[in-house]
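HUMAN: Quick job: go over this next protein and say how the chain folds.
***
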Amino acid sequence: MEKPELKLYNTLTRTKETFIPIDPNVVTLYTCGPTVYNYAHIGNLRSYIFPDILKKVLKMAGYNVKQIMNFTDVGHNTTDEDFGEDKVEKAAAEKGTNAWELSKFYAEAFKKDITALNITFPSKFTYATEYIKEQIDMVKTLEEKGYAYLTSDGVYFDTSKFDEYGKMAKLDIEGLNEGQRVEFKEKKNKTDFALWKLSPSDKKRQMEWESPWGIGFPGWHIECSAMVFAELGQHIDIHTGGTDHIQVHHTNEIAQSECSSGEKFVNYWLHGAFLVLEKNQRMGKSEGNFIILENLIDEGYSPIVYRYLTLTSHYRNFLTFSLDILKSAENSYFSLKKSVKNISQKDDSFGEEKQKEFDNAIFNSLLDDLNVPKSIGILWDMINSKELGNKNKIELIEKYDTVFSLNLLDFSDLDEKIDIPQEVIDIAEERLLVRKNKDFKESDRLRDLIHEKGFEIKDLKDAYEITLLK
């Protein structure tokens, strides 16, 4: 059966391309997983929602998908390069625990988070520490082919030997390599990167292994290539990750993989944009401003509300986050669910041709580089349409919620949401403005007015919460 045309934006070419799989029936997909030294923050989690959508769209298009997601439980330095402490070892030392136990704890916490977000598990989770032999073998291959050299602190990849190094990231290699040689230390080129690091002679690491070059541990980049080769093959269809991985991590993956195998590594590279805080401030663990999913739950938000928020912005666009924005997304989400509940209670059926039109429009938007915001907009139009019956609408909602995974036909959480009259919401919105203007007398008057109507308002930072008056 002929598959529908799927367009994906390929970072390698900076263009939307028609997806053509290596195998007509099975798509190989690798998703860069987390470094498990802390909880994943909500920005990290956004980068796992878009490959979840991708996988579900591929399945809807008729493909089987073999997806691997890794856990980096060793070798990722604090600088994302070849110096600094190993993130897992550093975190374990700070917490006074074992690196193995710490990485396992945060891997399980990550699984719990993605389960709460309705992200389906990959075909297999792979742990870097379980593929040490494969990583050593790949480094040996690169050394034998003349792409690697030994220094006093490890084995490095010689980027000057790979003509297309930096192509995806559009790196100015000559510009990067200008300057004093002292900056490179023993590296031949500034862009060279560690394949295998030797353990320091004056300190025993918790995670280290014997190798042909001495006791040490793998470099961060070699891990992904070795796991891809072991589980998916040397040439795969799609590799996903965050845009922060383009310049270093994924650039180095391409170099070591293609020099090791002698063939193309990945056909389609897909990258998700950052979630940012207000004033375009990036959220990150190193910045110390990250918010974890549990924080949102503690504030009273469902993880699915956060998933809904991420789906309101295309995966390649920045998504600005604040509690105000999340509150707005929650209102929109529950408004959508209430509309779905209302139509589910009516069993009329008509407008099959119109149903096909909406079906094609939603699916085509998903096939156009996973344009979920557009597809949800069409879903709203479909719900409000008077040209097709409610039973027909529910059929489409049921079909596409297998992709959105928003629990649109589960109304149990609506029972917890009180029906707030629009008049009360209008007063609350007005009160929010006067509070920002520090008109506290008017704020108190509006609060009393809300009380008179049988509701209570709780002030949050730049937002509010309305409950029934006790």
Observations:
- The mean pLDDT is 92.
- Residues 323-344 form the longest helix (22 residues).
